[in-house]
Amino acid sequence: MTNIVELMGVEKRYQGVQALKPLDLVLQQGEVLGLFGHNGAGKTTTIKLILGLIKASAGSVRVFGQDPTLSESRRTRYQLGFLQENVSFYEQLTGFEVLRYFARLKGIQTSECHRLLEQVGLKAAAARRVKTYSKGMRQRLGLAQALLGNPKLLLLDEPTVGLDPLATQDFYHRIAQLKEQGCTVVLCSHVLPGVEKYIDRALIMGKGAVLAQGSLDMLRLQAELPLTLNVKGSGLNIPEGLHSRATVLADGVSLTLSLQEKMPVMQHMLAQGGVTDIDLHLPSLEDLYTHYTRACVGHEMEGVL
Amino acid sequence: MTPIVSVAAKEFRDGLRNRWVLSIAVIFAVLAIGLAYFGSAAAGQVGFTSLSTTIISLASLAVFIIPLIALMLAYDGIVGEDESGTLLLLLTYPLSRWQLLCGKMLGHGAIMAFSTLLGFGSAALIMGLFAPDIGWSEMLIPFMLFIVSAILLGWIFIAFAYVISVSVTEKSKAAGLALIVWFLFVLVFDLGLLGVLVGTQGDVDAELFPYLLLLNPTDIFRLVNITYFADQQLSGLMAIAEHVQLSTTSLMASLLVWLAIPVLLALVLFNRRAL
Predict the structure, then answer these.
(1) pLDDT above 90: residue A206
(2) Cβ contact A77–B86 (<8 Å)
(3) Considering the entire predicted model, what is its pTM?
(4) CB atoms A82 and B92 under 8 Å
(5) Which of A214, B75, B131, B154 could make an SS bond with B48 (beta carbons 3.0 to 4.6 A apart)?
(6) pLDDT at residue A130 above 90?
(7) Tally of CB atoms within 10 A around B263
(8) CATH number of A3-220: 3.40.30.10, 3.30.1360.120, 3.40.50.1260, 3.40.50.300?
């Protein structure tokens, strides 16, 4: 496996302000990373460093094995796709003209523009000026732009903002396809609804530092967040020692459990006769995100006090 | 296509789309024909005036309006793309900063050149067809000189606009600075020079003084067009220049120097611009 992106001890300071504390990040071919954090958490700085738009104050950045800020590595940009947040394209041009402009700069045939516009569902609006586009259509145009020339590395900042649920679904399918073709993807967001299934790893940032990094399973284990087990039925017998963590509902009971307790408690409950329904809530990405970022804010509070 | 041509072509298309080309051409044509036809209205006549009167009054009006149009056209060239986010995006594409900037300046330069040619060219055509006393052959050289120098003047101020555009981070600030640049070059400089002349009661080096006019591209533009009709009675600041014989070629060359300076400055500043 090749390392597409390699950040080693990378730091970034802007006029004395530490925007990014030492960060190590390795992305391999075909990996999908979710980069999460509040505004000012260091997401955009990380993305800009990978794109070679800014120079790291310390540490080394390698993209496709080269320092992206050097002019010799301009060739690697043919393999790069990027879409940042809140980009507004040239209003006076039509959607097709905008895409053709970017395609020309990347040395890509016009025929691919038609194909991509069709793929993102803008075929009917291709000849209309961008100023008549809705927010979702602009976002789709931006995505088409990022997908020009089958990039090997795709960096997307808030890619699903303004997309309706159907388009969001389409977008994730497209990401999954690209991943299969060996494309490395970085999805950058506050929290993306429904993104869990599609990312291999998550990187949660806060105040320029890494708060957590790893697969979602790993993060769940580390966070030790409780899961919720809802059991419906009558005459239920709550296991010993769980009474304090149980809420009795009209038609059953809701239990708060640790990961280790999951299987024994489920077996205990199912062994009883009266169970009619059972469902299990694992901590979601949103729960994990809240957990890790709250810890970050918590430290800050301690510092103040 | 090289990236420079792609950027320039897109910029030109934008100029056609948002009616810049049309507006500039119409303004120039109306200005030229109006001056040619009503130029002697003050003297109680209506009808086409002589070629020299037309060109000289055209030059003294165009000197106000061309810089203004050029600055308005290009002041948001870079800062506008920065505000809409496309600058960041373009810099992740396989083109370098100087290619992007050159492409944009080339595009705006083409808009200026095309509409100047269209506007003043059509005015020249109408004069040639309808003015009884003006022949084609006597018109050709002065009008060509006028159009070429007008295009150069436009390019110089487009380059000024880019110097402003690459050094600020807000569009509104760029607009303000553009206005100040216009005010300084078009109004303040001449007033200052006249002030010095009057204040010292003409006691300045008569040899040196006319060369001070070379410090302002708008004055060079006027000189180019006025010195062609050297027999004309000149008034104001331009009268000073009568003493010096600056050839049309050297005046044009100094316009080119005035073009090169801000272009290079914009390139240097853009390379340093932080994102």
Answers:
(1) no
(2) no
(3) 0.87
(4) yes
(5) B131
(6) yes
(7) 21
(8) 3.40.50.300
